[in-house]
Write a structure and sequence with these properties.
10 strands
Length: 116
């Protein structure tokens, strides 16, 4: 386990012993003493990242999931899951919400209220 402070953000992480890859990270993005982002990872025994899940506000509802095995992503916005498009492209990942294409980072910033 590692406790760090980066850019005035307090973080705790649990890492795989052999590879140093993260299993779990908690972040206090506004340094108010309350963690506001939980990120957890599923990986193979060799340390290959399989999935990455973000829970903004730590309410138990995952908000963003990346699947590295099939190079897909999903974001929970409002009350629905939306597929992330254009992963790994120059234009950057986007999400189609209510007929409007939005940059993934802006959606995550809105969901995470700045924790992203």
């Amino acid at each position: 386990m590692l406790l760090t402070s980066r850019n005035n953000k307090v973080a705790i992480g649990v890492f795989q012993a052999n590879t140093g890859e993260p299993y779990l990270q908690l972040l206090d993005s506004n340094n108010d003493g309350v963690f506001d982002l939980l990120t957890y990872y599923v990986m193979s025994a060799e340390g290959e990242m399989l999935t990455e899940t973000h829970d903004y506000g730590m309410d138990g509802q995952p908000d963003f999931i990346l699947n590295y095995t099939d190079n897909t992503g999903s974001v929970f916005y409002g009350d629905s899951w939306y597929e992330v498009s254009d992963l790994g492209t120059k234009q950057g990942p986007t999400v189609l919400i209510d007929g409007r294409s939005r940059a993934l980072d802006s959606v995550l910033t809105e969901i995470g209220q700045g924790a992203y």
